[in-house]
Design a protein that fits this description.
By secondary structure, the protein is α+β, with helices and mostly antiparallel strands. The chain has three domains: 94 residues; 330 residues, phage-related protein like fold; 93 residues, Immunoglobulin-like. Helices cover 32% and strands 23% of the residues. The protein has twelve helices and 24 strands.
């Protein structure tokens, strides 16, 4: 594993180089805008000006081409190194069943100790459930020791970590993967595949009926059609503050806390995305797919034939006036739209606790002795299928079906970054965890979304805003813009009769804002002096990995 450790360090270094190159993208955007302005300023027939601008354009194009080439080469190199690392980790020797020898690497295969991580109570941490010998063996590994040491070293840093991601040791990943199931309800329901790179999952398309014939007759040929769905890799991430005193604690406590932190934060995020993911920058959720009324523009040609399910598989039933057999008959009919010949698993039904309580109320009966019976104990009666309580779901909505027909592709290589600045005054170090995944229903017709209050099913769910990569402006002051300012509109016109202060305020604190007028940098909030004619004010906003450019054509009146 020494080679793997060195390879991880090289990958981190290359990623830092790539991030530095990506930061230069905004410079090329600004230069391009300045060149456009210079082209407009060239006097017709002035060969000297034309030659000068042409030379600048050629230099710019050459530099930009070289820049893009460097980025592409680095990206390919990083991908090659990550593939090599994955192969090394896959081929690493597994521990012998009679226990690890001194200095031997130990993977996190939980079955070796016959521990059911998923069945542990919430008040018991997964790492603590391992035997003391097992914990000691894990902490003795070189990659674990290196990881924990680097984690602690971040505590004293006076600035945010840039390009310094920590790859979590494989032995932790195995444990986290099992532990996430305690904090996620739906990971227990869907089909999970661990993949690298772009995932193409082959699934059955049209399954023909076999032909009955005489015992000695010729056998008919059956034609099977196979389809593919393609899954990418999106990042689910979040951060959590860690009291610095914990970082000073022993390795056992620190490792145990990290496992729980990552398991809970990512597990909970997965549930929401499996149901309501937008399919852009994240998973495609079940409800989102059912609500589609036309095939997306990028729908793959080799995927199963697209179906419009927004009427057949999204239903509203019931209401306060509908009770008893009439209500349950309507529910049975609505859930019956999950028909599929492909599933081999059981159904699940997700809802919040209020909806679950309402279902109970519609099943209340009295025994001969006057006892109240609700007849619902974690399983949806009549319909069948386990009930999963998810409090983020809207009141009255039930989403469910055959979970094994939702494919979730999980990438290896969960990472951590940190910053001490974010909560410096609270004496906390903030850790950010990232896991790459993608997913979608492979047979969408196997799922339904139902509202039992006879109102429209909620098909769009708000997710936490990606403020870390928000490069929008909040406003531009000092100019009367046409059209009126809108964060999504990037081109404007304005007039100025005299010098005045012009400022651009970012939507997110901490974003970098740069102003350039007539090809020259100006101070944000400083005085802008208009020149004769129409000149561009170029405003470049950078936040995280996002860059956005606003242009105002300023005319001196």
């Amino acid at each position: 594993m020494l080679k793997a450790l060195m390879l991880r360090r090289s990958i981190d270094a290359k990623k830092a180089e790539l991030a530095a190159l990506e930061e230069k993208d905004a410079e090329f955007v600004t230069r391009e805008a300045a060149l456009e302005a210079a082209i407009n300023e060239v006097e017709p027939g002035n060969q000297e000006q034309e030659a000068a601008v042409t030379a600048e354009i050629e230099t710019f194009e050459n530099e930009r081409t070289a820049h893009q080439g460097q980025k592409q080469a680095l990206t390919e190199e990083v991908q090659h190194m990550e593939d090599e690392l994955e192969e090394l980790e896959r081929s690493a020797p597994k521990p012998q069943k009679n226990g690890p020898k001194h200095g031997e690497k130990v993977r996190g295969d939980m079955h070796m100790e016959n521990i059911n991580i998923r069945a542990l109570p919430r008040n018991q941490r997964a790492f603590d459930a391992l035997s003391s010998e097992r914990r000691a063996a894990i902490l003795a590994q070189e990659d674990t020791k290196t990881f924990l040491a680097q984690l602690r070293s971040m505590k004293g840093q006076s600035r945010a970590v840039t390009g310094g991601e920590l790859t979590i040791p494989v032995v932790f990943l195995d444990l986290i993967a099992q532990n996430m199931y305690r904090y996620s309800k739906l990971l227990n329901r869907v089909r999970i595949r661990n993949v690298s790179g772009e995932a193409r999952q082959t699934i059955a398309g049209t399954v023909p009926e076999a032909v009955w014939t005489e015992m000695c007759a010729a056998i008919n040929e059956l034609t099977f059609a196979f389809n593919q769905i393609t899954l990418d890799g999106y990042k689910v991430a979040g951060f959590v503050p860690v009291c610095n005193s914990l970082l000073e604690d022993n390795d056992v406590n620190l490792a145990s806390w990290i496992v729980e932190m990552l398991s809970e934060s990512i597990g909970l995020a997965m549930d929401k995305a499996i149901l309501y993911g937008k399919g852009v920058g994240m998973l495609l959720g079940i409800v989102t797919r059912l609500a589609q009324q036309s095939a997306p523009a990028n729908y793959p040609a080799n995927a199963p034939a697209w179906e419009d399910l927004h009427t057949s598989n999204i239903k509203q039933i019931g209401g306060d006036s509908v009770t008893g057999a009439a209500f349950w008959a309507a529910l049975v009919e609505a859930t019956g739209n999950t028909f599929t010949r492909y599933s081999r698993g059981e159904q699940f039904w997700a809802m919040n606790s209020k909806t679950y309580a309402k279902l109970k109320s519609k099943l209340i009966t009295f025994t001969a002795t006057g006892d109240i019976v609700a007849n619902i104990f974690g399983v949806l009666p009549i319909v069948n299928g386990d009930v999963d309580i998810l409090e983020f779901m809207p009141d009255g909505d039930i989403v469910g079906g055959y979970g094994d027909l939702y494919l979730l592709a999980m990438r290896s290589g969960m990472t951590i970054e940190s910053s001490r600045e974010v909560q410096f005054i609270q004496d906390n170090t903030v850790y950010k965890a990232c896991q790459r995944a993608d997913g979608q229903p492979i047979i969408p017709g196997a799922f339904v979304a139902i509202n039992i209050n006879n109102t429209a099913v909620t098909t769009v769910m708000d997710f936490a805003a990606d403020t870390a990569n928000d490069a929008d402006l909040d406003n531009i002051t000092g100019l009367t813009l046409t059209p009126n300012f809108d964060a999504d509109v990037t081109a404007y016109t304005a007039t100025m009769s005299a010098a005045g202060a012009v400022a651009a305020a970012p939507a997110q604190a901490g974003a970098d804002v740069a102003l350039a007028y007539n090809g020259k940098n100006v101070v944000n909030g400083g005085t802008l002096t208009p020149v004769t004619g129409t000149k561009d004010l170029v405003i470049t906003v950078k936040r995280g990995n996002a860059t956005k450019v606003y242009t105002v054509a300023v005319t001196k009146s």
